[in-house]
Specification:
The protein is of the alpha/beta class and 612 residues long. The chain has 24 helices and 13 strands. The strands form two sheets. Strands 9-10-8-11-12-7-13 form a seven-stranded parallel beta sheet. It has a six-stranded parallel beta sheet with strand order 3-2-4-5-1-6, with helices on both faces. α18 crosses α19. The N and C termini lie far apart (71 Å). InterPro entries: P-loop_NTPase.
Length: 612
């Protein structure tokens, strides 16, 4: 295997690209093996100098499936969600029938996935306390519950074994593994088996496990800027990106914007004001977008009803206004309030509330027979999704229903609703987007290189891979990463340490993400001063950002500045008010409060006085 040292500057990838183009020029087949989020980027790099026939960008899961398909190995495959479901069944079995919470099952599922990735069998789990012993029992029960089905790590192990046994006829002449910060023993076993099968294999890592070539470095010019606050910083950066596109001669696909995960939504919202399209290449849970938020709110409303949640139902808006005015939450309090309002005003809020709660009970009217009961629950889930246009027309619709099936497997009929909401919040996906300026979080920068990149919000503690000690198996029971590959062929059961200081490599990757890198940070936010991440911004003195240019339509209209329109402005229907109240409670004030009071009849309590 031809190893390269990945110094995070793109030099290793450029060296492999040269070799890949040589092979395709000879009409040989090439697989560019990369992360799933990097496939489109890799294809653009391969085709940057003209058509590259015979080259294909793939990720490990695709390679595993191709190997199994060619060998004729079929069977039941477990998705990530179904793995959580099987772990939940195992926890319930060991707890004597007690249904685990979705978060508990996910915690064990992640630990089991790590053990399997490093080929640690249940009997080889390092046991040091009661929780690690419990993990060992749950792991063994999971393997029994799974039976002959294959989870993603089983598929990886089987694929490597099939290639090693000669059951795979090579579909490519060369494999280039690029963009990885680490390769598990399972991944390395597959690459080694491919090399023995006659495939030319190249791979790059920051710390390769064997002798490696050190390719020439690619230069990167880094400029550091400081802003007064996060809003000033974001507006200045968006204006600079727009200038690059309109004046600087940059193509949108040559630019990238890296932002901390917590600032992704704010960045996308403000970019729309600037008429700037950002191609979001990050992974999202469905609940992070409006349709998913709505579905999760609906699922949780019967168990945790709030005044804001009442606005999800137009017929309960009067009850929501009354509950908000009195600061009420909880089912008993809201039921009592509904009865009081009915008695005082002669309405029907109480029966309407009960009808809404009944419609959100998946077990209402469910048959006793198990198969019919499960069919009833899935039909209820489909009615819930299709009953709201925002959900029915969402690109997430099929994902919603897939998570419903997985939730039924995991939580059974009794825990169906809670598990469905939990899976919607935790299982992350990446959507296809039209081409534009790449919007990345720190986890998507590996293996990429642009002409120009902006790194936003480089404050201390923001750009980190969040390394932390495992809940079950402490660092003392783990091995240094350098020993993992030395021991993996002699014995199994080698778990690497988690605290490896990989943030340093992340900072190097960010500083070398493009030919020209602009790093910025705010000097303060709303509540405190902020310090920059010194190893990321470097030793150069940062330059202050000037006033934000008038690039946004909201800031300038035909050079005369912005003037508020005199005509009426369309506003959201009352069913969307829950989002407004959520912003008010989370961020300490809302600009729509006066409109809400006028339109919806909301008034502060008598003893409440506005601060102004």
């Amino acid at each position: 295997m031809h190893w390269l040292i990945d110094a995070a500057d793109g030099g290793a990838s450029e060296r492999m690209l040269e070799r890949a183009r040589e092979l395709t020029a000879q009409k040989r087949r090439v697989w560019w093996l990369t992360l799933p989020s990097n496939r489109n980027f890799a294809l653009r790099r391969l085709a940057a100098r003209g058509a590259t026939l015979g080259a294909e960008a793939v990720h490990f899961q695709q390679v595993h499936q191709r190997v199994l398909a060619q060998a004729g190995r079929t069977g039941t495959f477990l998705s990530t969600g179904l793995r959580v479901a099987r772990v939940g069944e195992s926890l319930r079995e060991l707890a004597g029938g007690r249904m685990p919470a979705p978060g508990e099952a996910r915690l064990f599922a992640r630990a089991i996935a790590e053990l399997k990735r490093f080929e640690v069998a249940p009997e080889e789990v390092p046991v040091g306390d009661g929780e690690s012993r419990r993990l060992q029992r749950v792991y063994a029960a999971y393997e029994r519950a799974k039976g002959e089905a294959l989870d993603p790590d089983d598929v990886a192990r089987l694929a490597a074994d099939l290639v090693a046994e000669g059951a795979w006829r090579p579909e490519t002449d060369a494999v280039f593994a690029a963009g990885f910060w680490e390769l598990s023993p399972l991944a390395l076993s597959l690459l080694t088996a491919m090399e023995r099968a006659g495939v030319e294999v190249w791979a790059s890592l920051p710390e390769p496990p064997g002798p490696a070539e050190d390719p020439p470095r690619l230069p990167a010019a880094v400029a550091v800027w400081r802003a007064e606050n996060p809003v000033h910083e974001l507006r200045w950066v968006l204006a600079e990106i727009k200038r690059d596109l309109l004046v600087g001669g940059f193509d949108p696909l040559e630019l990238a914007l890296v932002v901390p995960p917590e600032r992704l939504e704010a960045t996308k919202m403000l970019a729309r004001e600037y008429d700037l399209y950002l191609m979001d290449e990050t992974y999202h849970a469905p609940s992070e977008e409006e349709p998913g938020k709505l579905l999760v709110d609906l699922l949780r409303f019967p168990d945790h009803p709030t005044a804001e949640g009442l606005f999800l139902f137009e017929e309960l808006a009067p009850l929501g206004r009354a509950a908000l005015a009195r600061g009420l939450a909880g089912l008993d309090a809201i039921r009592k309030l509904a009865r009081q309002l009915d008695e005082a005003e002669g309405g029907r809020l109480a029966p309407t509330l009960e009808a809404v709660l009944a419609s959100l009970d998946p077990l209402a009217g469910a048959p006793a027979e198990d198969a019919a009961r499960r069919a009833h629950l899935l039909a209820w889930a489909e009615r819930l999704v299709d009953g709201r246009p925002l959900l029915a027309q969402s690109r997430w619709r099929e994902v919603f229903l897939l998570r419903a099936r997985e939730a039924l497997e995991a939580g059974g009929p009794e825990g169906f609703r809670a598990w469905w909401a939990g899976l919607l919040e935790r299982v992350r996906l990446r959507a296809r987007r039209p081409g534009g300026v790449a919007l990345l979080s720190p986890r998507e920068v590996s293996g990429r290189r642009y002409r120009k990149a902006y790194v936003l919000g480089a404050s201390e503690g923001v750009y980190t891979l969040d390394e932390r000690e495992d809940y079950f198996i402490p660092e003392e029971a783990r091995r240094p990463w350098s020993e993992v590959f030395e021991r993996i062929y002699a014995e199994r059961g080698v778990l690497p340490r988690r605290l490896r200081g990989r943030d340093v490599h992340l900072w190097r990757s960010l500083r070398a993400l493009a030919d020209e890198v602009v790093i910025s940070y705010p000097e303060a936010d709303g509540g405190r001063p902020l310090e920059p991440e010194r190893d990321l911004v470097g030793a150069d003195e940062p330059r202050p950002m000037g006033p934000v240019p008038l690039v946004s339509r909201a800031l300038s209209r035909e050079g005369s500045g912005y003037r508020a329109p005199r005509e009426g402005v369309p506003l959201p229907a009352p069913s969307g008010l829950s989002q407004v109240y959520r912003f008010e409670r989370s961020y300490g004030g809302c600009g729509f409060r006066s409109w809400l009071e006028a339109r919806e009849g909301l008034r502060p309590d008598e003893d409440e006085r506005p601060e102004w």
